[in-house]
């Protein structure tokens, strides 16, 4: 019998985030495995990824057993409210835990701050089905910042919000997020979801996003 408690977080929230994230990256389909969800990025060093829905001891042991072997390297991603315990359990299972934790974050997008791109920058958008991509370019033509969002029903999942090194500390991440939020709301979304790096978490917190569970990532 699976020890389904305690939950890592609202499992519906994790499913909604994953559905939109996979849409942004084109990594479908997502398959059910015991206590988690599996997908195939098929990238070098990341052939398969398993996302946990529970973080109890039995669940983690079963999910850790999914990692070794297979057609290529597998990542195990665990959203959890008890990251220290989860990291210890994964190490005891023989996995290598990444040193940097990430964070699942949410926000009501309807009042999201919006900041326009000032000269010498301009902002362009591209729509591909449910995915909107935003690119901020310098007048030189250089790509200065970018990001994407997938809109599925009332949810908008932001992904790969990045600023080029030479263009950082100019508020361009806020520009990208404001455009993504505006585009998502125009398409019917109300709730924003994303997983943030520590650097991204500082930006999103300043824009009113709420921090949820930590996200622990491990591999064999």
SSE blueprint and pairings:
Layout (H helix, E strand, L loop, with lengths): L10 H15 L5 E3 L2 E4 L8 E5 L4 H8 L9 E7 L2 H10 L3 E2 L4 E7 L12 E8 L2 E8 L4 E10 L2 E9 L8 H15 L4 E6 L1 H9 L3 E10 L1
Organism: Saccharothrix xinjiangensis
InterPro entries: Acyl_CoA_acyltransferase (IPR016181)
Protein name: GNAT family N-acetyltransferase
CATH top level label of the largest domain? Alpha Beta
CATH homology superfamily of the largest domain: Gcn5-related N-acetyltransferase (GNAT)
By CATH, the topology of the largest domain is Aminopeptidase
- Beta-strand percentage range: 35-45%
For the CA atoms, what is the radius of gyration? Answer: 18 Å
* Total beta strands: 12
The backbone outline, from C-alpha atoms, is: elongated
Number of domains: 2
- Decide which structural class fits the backbone: alpha+beta
What are the key terms here?
single chain, 220 residues, alpha+beta, Aminopeptidase, 12-stranded mixed β-sheet, 5 helices, 12 strands, elongated, disordered N terminus
Structural account:
This is GNAT family N-acetyltransferase. InterPro entries: Acyl_CoA_acyltransferase. It comes from Saccharothrix xinjiangensis. Strands 1, 2, 3, 4, 5, 6, 7, 8, 9, 10, 11 and 12 form a 12-stranded mixed beta sheet that branches. The two termini are 25 Å apart. The chain has 220 residues and is an alpha+beta fold. It contains 5 helices and 12 strands. It has 2 domains: 11-103, no CATH class; 107-212, 3-Layer(aba) Sandwich (Aminopeptidase).
């Amino acid at each position: 019998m699976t020890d389904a408690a305690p939950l890592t977080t609202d499992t519906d929230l994790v499913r909604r985030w994953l559905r939109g994230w996979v849409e942004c990256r084109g990594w479908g389909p997502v398959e059910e495995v015991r206590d988690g969800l599996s997908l195939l990025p098929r990238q070098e060093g990341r052939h398969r990824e398993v996302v946990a829905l529970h973080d109890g001891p039995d669940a983690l042991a079963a999910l850790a057993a999914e990692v070794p072997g297979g057609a290529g390297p597998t990542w195990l991603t665990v959203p959890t409210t008890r990251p220290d315990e989860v990291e210890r359990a994964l190490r005891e299972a023989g996995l290598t835990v990444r040193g940097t934790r990430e964070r699942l974050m949410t926000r009501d997008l309807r009042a999201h701050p919006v900041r326009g791109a000032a000269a010498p920058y301009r902002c362009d958008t591209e729509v591909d089905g449910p995915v909107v991509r935003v690119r901020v370019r310098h007048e030189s033509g250089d790509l200065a910042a970018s990001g994407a969002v997938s809109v599925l029903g009332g949810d908008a999942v932001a992904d790969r919000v990045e600023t080029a090194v030479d263009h950082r500390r100019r508020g361009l991440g806020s520009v990208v997020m404001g455009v993504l939020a505006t585009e998502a709301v125009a398409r019917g979304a109300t709730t924003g979801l994303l997983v943030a790096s520590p650097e991204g978490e500082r930006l999103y917190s300043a824009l009113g996003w709420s921090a949820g569970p930590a996200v622990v990532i491990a591999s064999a």
